[in-house]
Specification:
Elements (H helix, E strand, L loop, with lengths): L2 H27 L4 E4 L2 E4 L3 H22 L16
Antiparallel strand pairs: 1-2
Helix pairs in contact: 1-2
Keywords: Coiled coil
Amino acid sequence: MDTVTIKKRLEFHTQRLDNLYLAYNKLLSGGVKSYRLDDRELTRLDLGKLSDEIKDAEEKVDELTALLNGQSARKAFAVIPHDW
């Protein structure tokens, strides 16, 4: 992946993350009963799902930042325990 593509993706996901933070804070503060984010309407009941989306977006921003700085992206791996 080239640097220009990484920068575009990083900018997109950073903006997405900012919007998610704003929605979460508005709902958490109790100042609004619902919040419209793009084409969906969120309520306080959606805070758990919104929190998961924030976590995913933060991981994506971290991954793209690492790629931009010349580091390798984090890769997930599984450990399978054996009972011997």
